[in-house]
Design brief:
The chain has about 375 residues and is of the alpha+beta class. The chain has 2 domains: about 240 residues, no CATH class; about 110 residues, no CATH class. Helices cover about 35% and strands about 20% of the residues. It is built from 12 helices and 12 strands. Strands 1, 2, 3, 6, 7, 8, 9, 10, 11 and 12 form a 10-stranded mixed β-sheet that branches. Strands 4-5 form a two-stranded antiparallel sheet. A hairpin with a 2-residue loop joins β2 and β3. α9 runs antiparallel to α12. The relative contact order is 0.20.
Length: about 375
């Protein structure tokens, strides 16, 4: 029996003819590793697709999970817009409150959209700001200067015998102020370090276990109304990069951190992990969805529950492997066995795989049972 301080999730996903994650030039993201260039999927890309996924295991489908919004226009579009549509308050007053809120939330750069960084705010925080904005506008319906000053005080640091400003006091007394997404993946607020949330889910960049495999796809577009006698040729000619790859992915769940971020609820944390395992296994990132249909489920997933500091199995592929699942699984098995020989095997392990693969000390389960096992480990505080 093992107390799970960390859950480590290792995966192998295979994608043919896809462009999963592009850089600023429109090419597939890459990274050098082990003297070979690999195709890469950034952790930001993976997390976004998991947190925005729909369906039975969507994160926003979890009971008790507060939603969140990542934007640099939360004040304008989510807080103030309903008040502007309701009428009854002078435009100057609304502008003053909006300006003070933008500076209070986004910092000194909040006076312009270009100066604001996209910030994650939980729905409880948004609703609180909506409530305060209505109150301020009702108190000062015709006095823009007074409304702006009152709005500024909402974010002002402690004065006299007050212990906290209003917004901070609300945040500290509210469950999931930053929403479920903030509790899982964290957030950084440069204008208010007290609003920072440490991520409980740590996500590595996925990379191909082999050297990059890519080609330039030449394509043409035919004009349906062209006439053979006058409009011969293509209406458009272009090209884009396509890649294929078998990707190793790695995710760590800091169990105490997750439970703490979820207001101490092991039950909610267990539901989150159950959903997350399904999302990691089945949700595909991808640009060019319409032209490549890059949908794939994991060929292999290994979950380890233990109390030791996590360690990636990426070094199993420092020497590029063959682009085959059985070769990659053999590399994982060999490297994990060598780690166990050096450091001992102190983690409880479960795995699933499409083919009949074995990994040291890992009992085979299907995806549903694997997700339930991980959830039970968090709910009960032990992994068997």
């Amino acid at each position: 029996m093992t107390e799970p301080r960390f859950l480590q999730v290792h995966t192998l996903h295979s994608y043919p003819a896809a462009l999963l994650n592009r850089d600023d030039s429109g090419l597939a993201k890459r990274m050098p590793f082990g003297g070979a260039t690999r195709t890469r999927i950034s952790s930001q890309c993976l997390k976004r697709h998991w947190r925005t996924a729909d369906g039975e295991f969507a994160l926003n489908a979890i009971d008790g999970a507060a939603d969140a919004i990542r934007s640099r226009n939360v004040v304008e579009r989510s807080v103030m817009q309903p008040l502007r549509e309701a009428n009854g308050v002078a435009k100057e007053v609304l502008d003053a409150v909006e300006g003070a809120f933008n500076v209070g939330i986004y910092g000194s750069g909040g006076t312009s959209e270009s100066g604001r960084q996209p910030l994650l705010l939980g729905q409880p925080e948004v609703e609180y700001l909506q409530h305060k904005a209505r109150e301020l506008c009702a108190e000062h319906p015709d006095d823009a200067k007074a409304a702006g000053a009152a709005a500024t005080l909402l974010f002002t640091a402690a004065r006299r015998n007050e212990e906290h400003d209003n917004f901070r006091a609300f945040r500290e007394q509210t469950s999931l102020p930053g929403g479920l997404i903030g509790a899982l993946f964290g957030r950084m607020v440069t204008s208010d370090p007290g609003a920072n949330i440490d991520a409980a889910i740590h996500v590595a960049h996925a990379f191909t276990v082999h050297r990059e495999e890519s080609e330039s796809d030449y394509f043409s577009v035919v004009d349906d109304l062209q006439r053979d006698d006058k409009d011969a040729g293509a209406a458009h000619i272009g090209d884009m990069e396509l890649t294929a790859g078998l990707f190793y992915g790695y995710v760590v769940v800091d169990v105490p951190g997750l439970v703490s971020n979820l207001s101490g609820s092991r039950e909610l944390a267990s539901k989150v992990v159950k959903h997350l395992i399904h999302l990691i296994a089945t949700v595909s990132p991808g640009a060019k969805l319409g032209s490549t249909a890059p949908y794939a489920a994991a060929d292999l997933m290994l979950i380890e529950a233990g109390s030791r500091q996590p360690r990636s199995l990426a070094n199993a592929f420092r020497k590029p492997a063959k682009a085959q699942v059985d070769d990659a699984a053999a590399n994982l098995s060999d490297y994990l066995g060598r780690l166990d020989k050096c450091y001992g095997s102190n983690e409880a392990r479960r795995m699933m795989s499409v083919e009949d693969y074995d990994l040291p000390g890992a009992e085979w389960l299907d995806c549903n049972a694997l997700a339930e096992w991980a959830a039970d480990a968090i709910r009960n505080g032990e992994a068997r």
